[in-house]
Amino acid sequence: MTAPTILIVDDEKLIRWSLAERLKKEGFGTVEAGDGVTALEHVKNLEGELVLLDLRLPDTDGIRLLKQIRAVNADLPVIMITAYGTVEVAVEAMKLGAYDYVAKPFNMDELVITVQRALEASTLRREVLDIRRSQKERFGIRNILGTSASLKEAVSLIERVGRSDATTILLLGESGTGKDLMARAIHYESRRAERPFMTITCTTIQETLLESELFGHEKGAFTDARNLKQGLFELASGGTVFLDEIGDMPLSLQAKLLRFLEDKAFKRLGGVVDIRVDVRVIAATHRDIEKMIREGRFREDLFYRLNIVPIRLPPLRERKEDVEALALHFVRHYSRELSRKVTGLAPRAVEALAAYNWPGNVRELRNSMERAVLLGSDDVVTLEDLPQEVRKGVAPPERKGRLYILPREGIVFDDVEKDLVLQALEFTDWNQTRSAELLGMSRDQIRYRIEKFALVAPGREGAAGGGAGGAATALGAVGREGPPAKNGASRDSSTRVGG
Ligand SMILES: Nc1ncnc2c1ncn2[C@@H]1O[C@H](COP(=O)(O)OP(=O)(O)OP(=O)(O)O)[C@@H](O)[C@H]1O
Ligand SMILES: [Mg+2]
């Protein structure tokens, strides 16, 4: 990084000269202007990262020039130079956004420190702005993908609620439907976006610890409380607290939370004074809260307090039209992240994605795509790259035309048959029903061949009685009610595809 350049604006040449000499000695670059027009020219050309601005100028006054400078570049730090007796004007300048002022005749050491501080503050400010902008980009509502009516409805609700002053929101939805994502989007769409977003999962923590995490504690409130500690509600003041898995919050703490939601005030553990804060509480759960109320595991009054604005996130299986777009988004995301060249989805893969039920919702889809991008070798995600349970959903390819060309020297038909049956079994992880479908035959037909060729899943050899001898007996035992194949029927029925 090059040293910052200071723009010195003063009508007195001697002052400009002495300032420049000192600042150069400190390692700064300098640019000088004796009047307003020249100064503004420099600002427009982005010469100078900080302005030292004299209040008295031949063609304008410092205040007017300050306004013009800020109109060109609102973030440029400006330090006013004032003569004795013009401090009021300097104060006015600070109201207009000047960083500070120094009075003539100035102490050069002090001036240098003021300059350094102003530059630091401006760098910090820029960093904070950058972080906020990137946070909003990362977590804002634009990151919620999907065009299904039910998702769009949830998103539009989030948008409206985010901007409103509603302080409690309840997010309901199965695991992986995007509750976390939505909670952040609500925060970053709201006027609270520049204040903290704090999150806590009520599941993982033991009761008193959870209580002190939320409300804080005074020094000595309990044995381990060596110091005063602020809780999340205090730390997130002006912002948002996300209570994830609220369904797992212990009943006693539910009562405390309700009191806080109603009064907007609380006491730290062991504390006597009420602390008032303005925070929005977003609670989320994948549990059936109404059922929990019936079972006495969740307070009804708290539920009604939270349920003022409920947002239900639909499971992925109820909005299948979102699957392909989401999958494509994740494929491209992971392709970039993992430096792969996968750009799309093969038609058969799309078919399988659409047929699958997605019990783990968007999270499962995302993980499947990450795996596919990582393991795949094609430039599109193919059926084979998908997890086995997803693959199962597609119908076997249609067979038409001449599939195999008989070599002139002929073949051993049994070998071909055996090889195809084996391939089907391997491809379906030894699922007989799916293998039979792939080969266009019944289960009895495939069982017959498994036994005929004594095919055994790897790792099951011992259990099968093994080897050629096994084949002979198996062959002898062929029949409609023959012994169940090695993998057993239970596996087959459990892997049947839901619709
Ligand atoms: N509509 C969506 N658009 C883009 N990404 C999504 C969407 N919904 C969920 N995701 C992604 O899916 C993953 C799971 O979402 P999230 O963690 O928000 O789910 P959750 O409902 O909080 O699940 P859990 O109940 O298990 O905590 C995240 O990576 C999230 O970014
Ligand atoms: Mg979550």
Structural notes for this entry:
The chain is α/β, with parallel strands linked by helices. It contains 21 helices and 16 strands. The chain has a five-stranded parallel beta sheet with strand order 2-1-3-4-5, with helices on both faces. A five-stranded parallel beta sheet has the order 7-10-13-6-14. Strand 1 (5-9), helix 1 (13-25) and strand 2 form a beta-alpha-beta unit. The longest helix is centred in the N-terminal third of the chain and has 32 residues, at 108-139. The chain is extended. The chain starts with a strand and ends in a 5-residue tail after the last helix. Residues 464-499 have low confidence and may be disordered. Residues 144-146, 173, 175-181, 286, 362-363, 366 line the site of adenosine-5'-triphosphate.
Give a short synopsis of this structure.
With 499 residues, this protein is an alpha/beta fold.
Highlighted features:
499 residues; alpha/beta; Rossmann fold; Helicase, Ruva Protein, domain 3; 4 domains; five-stranded parallel sheet; 16 strands; extended; binds adenosine-5'-triphosphate; binds magnesium ion
